[in-house]
Amino acid sequence: MLSVLLIVLPIFALIGAGWIARRSGVLGPHATGEINRFVVWLALPALLFDIVAKARWSDIWQPGFIAVFGIGAGLSFAATLLLQRRGGRHLADATVDGLNAGYANTGFIGFPLAATILGPASLAPTLVATIITVCLLFAVALILIEIGMQSERRPGHMMAKVARSLATNPLLVAPLVGGLFLAFAIPLPAPLDKFLSLLGGAASPCALVALGLFIAEKREGAPLPAGAVGFLVGMKLLAQPLLTGALALVFRLPPALAATAVLMAALPTGTGPFMVAEFYGREAGITARVVLVSTIASLVTITLYLSLR
């Protein structure tokens, strides 16, 4: 319990710093959007490029783990999206809900937790889980959101608009360019490597501060629906790890890889869905609450999982 708490505590500290900065007036009402734009256009693309470009095929080519974690995250995302669509949610909003249910915080919590609990051997599959989450799942979600945001009714014109939007989206372009470095084994020059490390390292902290800023904003109107938040938190912290554990049995994944896959699936919702919701103006309030509540609740669920192993 203590090891989990020590890893999660800095996350709450960063969220709290943003909350205090906004409530005290140190940062103004436009800070959330501006910091979020910095993350979306600069810091996160640098991180995604860095992750993919530095990956090694020997580390990431683990078909069993890819199938188990990827299918688990994908089904959690798809099931939530379809259920929300049946309930009348807009495609863009339902897609953000799907991200809330399937987007694990593998980067900020996953690596230190895996290293502490499972040891160094778990870091390579954790990298695979991170690539699946922040690149593949993110890419699918962005495509669906762009489709949902289009008012154009003619299919050909709509797809052309979507294609143009995606071609200029840094969250898709960065990992694709990084993939070229990986595919052709191009080493990163030392200055570029340092630049990417410095800029990419700001992504998670800035996103968490932005989350705190957003939560601190005083809003008029109806309170957030607790049922919607509870459903998404339950899908993330219960449904996804249970599904991943079942898939690990079906694919007969070795115990060490199975443990890593389930631990990654049991992580709380990362800041990616919040950044997308805020960037596209899609009900970021629910997403902010899901990130906060799932992070708190994961102290119990992860500790319970680790005690049952």
Automatic annotation (TrEMBL):
Gene Ontology CC terms: plasma membrane
Location(s) in or outside the cell: Cell membrane
Membrane-crossing residue ranges in chain numbering: 64-83, 123-145, 166-189, 195-216, 228-251, 257-276, 288-308
Pfam families hit by this protein: Mem_trans (PF03547)
Keywords assigned by UniProt, alphabetized: Cell membrane, Membrane, Transmembrane, Transmembrane helix, Transport
Primary location class: membrane
Gene Ontology BP, a term: transmembrane transport
Membrane topology, from the record: Multi-pass membrane protein
Stored InterPro entries: Mem_transp_PIN-like, Na+/solute_symporter_sf
Family named by the database record: Belongs to the auxin efflux carrier (TC 2.A.69) family.
Protein name: Auxin efflux carrier
Species: Sphingobium yanoikuyae ATCC 51230
Taxonomic lineage of the native organism: Bacteria, Pseudomonadati, Pseudomonadota, Alphaproteobacteria, Sphingomonadales
